[in-house]
Specification:
Layout (H helix, E strand, L loop, with lengths): L1 H6 L10 H24 L10 H12 L4 E5 L3 E5 L1
Antiparallel strand pairs: 1-2
Helix pairs in contact: 2-3
Length: 81
């Protein structure tokens, strides 16, 4: 997880499938965020984690040709605007 946080960027100007990007990359980042948050709340694992994967998901949403809003309020909601 630390490698993803440190090394993954979305600063490349390429054409991507919005659908594939949303379900695979965005879904992976948000799923990782939910899992990491769950483990951290358990008190044993990932105490260093500060929600960086959700920040990466938001950054990716800003790069794609559609706006994807990620809200965490106990649940994850995706809204395509």
């Amino acid at each position: 997880m630390r490698l993803v946080i440190q090394d993954v960027t979305f600063d490349t100007d390429v054409v991507v499938s919005v659908f594939e990007t949303n379900i695979r990359i965005m879904g992976g980042l948000v799923g990782g965020y939910v899992a990491a948050t769950h483990f951290k709340q358990g008190g044993i694992y990932l105490q260093w984690y500060q929600g960086e994967l959700l920040g990466k998901a938001r950054g990716l949403g800003n790069q794609v040709d559609t706006k994807v809003m990620c809200l965490y309020n106990g649940d994850i909601y995706f809204t395509l605007i």
